[in-house]
Amino acid sequence: MQSKGKKAEYNKVIPFIPEGDFYYTKGVEAFKKRKFDIAIKWMKKAMEQKPKDPLYKCQLSIIYTEVGSYHKANQLLTEVLQSSDYIDCYYLIANNYAHLGLLYDARKYAQFYLDKEPDGDFSEDANRLLELIQIDEDIDDLDLEDEDELLIYQETAFYHMENSEWTKAIPIIEEMIDLFPDHILAKHEYAQAIFYTGKQNEAIKIEKDILEEDPNSLYSHMNLALFYYEQKNPAYEKHIQALLNIYPIHVQQKLRVAVTLARTGNSEEAYNRFKQLAKEPVKTHLSYYKWYSICAYNCGDPGKALDIWEEGCKKHPRLSDEEGPWNNK
What we know:
Serine Threonine Protein Phosphatase 5, Tetratricopeptide repeat
């Protein structure tokens, strides 16, 4: 028989006070499951326990980047650099600036990173970022008059393609290619237009030839993923895998990746991409509302799907002629 003192000792509750590493681990687990709101809460708790730990701040910045809070991410990374020489911060800051469209600052920090860590973990990413910035600047070097004319062609072709009016789009794109032979996007648009008017083999050859010259061609991967998926050719999966590792700088490219993933049955990944898009730059795209709503429905959020669909029908009345997301599983 136990004494009273012994029983009292056994009944004592020793409070468990987790340290920062526990919270950090929980945050990383939530992040891997793409439960970003929960991940942020855990990571903030970790920082409360160890406010000077640079790893916690860097990880929280990465979560902020994932949800599109680029300013918050850079604020944390700047704090880390003020108290330590955590070299990876330079690349992470550069990446956030690129997403914000601040290309001068993006280039500066990417170069800082490469100067300090030419063979670092992010060196390949930093070099790729610098290449993308250079491409963007090359496009900006067009004469203003030429740029205005190109924009007219692009907008006209875009309108027809958004409405699946492929035969109307083709002559516009052909003329654009003649006038602006270095505008590579026009060739991708042409491939897509002729694919959907029956010239499938020719369209695939165009993209394969471009991809052979530039294995990192984002538009070639997107078009080939779509083309092979339409043909029920399992080769599409290789191009989807390439897209899953690409997070473009420009909003239009982000949208196009999301739409491509949605159209090839990758609803969950596409839904995450759609949620990170700023609506203002893409609200002129019928495809934004159509595929975002379909993905929301397929991912178990019918209320949001309906809201997106109804808003899309108001902005693009033609969308109401199509079947709603509940018929596109």
